[in-house]
Amino acid sequence: VNHLLGIKYISEEDIQLIFETADHFKEVINRPIKKVPSLRDVTIANLFFENSTRTRLSFELAEKRLSADVVNFSAASSSVKKGETLVDTVNNILSMKVDLVVMRHPNPGAGIFLSKNVNASIVNAGDGAHEHPTQALLDAFSIREKLGDVAGKKVVIVGDILHSRVALSNIFALQKLGASVKVCGPLTLMPKHIAHLGVEVEPNLDRALAWCDVANMLRVQNERMDNSYFPSTREYVQQYGLNLERLQKLNKEITIMHPGPINRGVEITSDVADSNQAIILNQVENGVAIRMAVLYLLASKIKNYD
Ligand code: CP
Description:
alpha/beta; Rossmann fold; 5-stranded parallel beta sheet; 9 strands; globular; Aspartate carbamoyltransferase; aspartate carbamoyltransferase activity; Asp/Orn_carbamoyltranf_P-bd; transferase; EC 2.1.3.2
């Protein structure tokens, strides 16, 4: 497969290969000279139809560290505003001899649609509430780095599960790697199909924290919802906000994660987000090595390096 469209479509072996490759690139980007020539004959287009800070910069840095040629496209300043379709837009970009497309899009399944309609490798950088595969890979890689392994670990994903591509991709990745996964959040923010994913819903945050080794705190995605069915922010903070008081009640030290962007004081307080238990910036650091690994492995297939 010459795409990364979702964690659902890759195997545990694929994930382990990405991790081993990322181990190498993490060592590379910590050298005084962070750049390697691996992709110097590869051209990558980063197409962002939705806002991003971490993912966009992380892909661009990963590409530059691999010596790829990079073009960046932001829908807001493009001819998409004049009515050009996604397929026409991408085919025009590909005709400029682009080898690989990284795309973030607000619509679930946009990456899958594109992969069936254009002749290029596609990396999904987040498609609506569907999947965010490189986020799940960097999250699991960060758990492996902090706790030695993902297998056997207990991970709770807390918050707005319904609108979260991070939650879905994390569930697939963690299960493939042998972790136990629970989700915790208001029932108004739980997908109806959650039971079919093999995860238990724990509606009580304190019980979820007492159970877990790792808590992955998600942002409430106000931009994807009608506020009428959401608990008020004050109720949400009371029931699902992670604060020091909750952590201090536990007789163990759990690892705290967040994919960013953080709404400080809502899903997590600043003292927790900035504490030694939080690995939030390690996740961001690892994102570059993970994306280098994904791009290197995909480009190796396109260019037949092996
Ligand atoms: N975690 C994440 O995807 O952040 P951005 O939306 O800033 O890319």
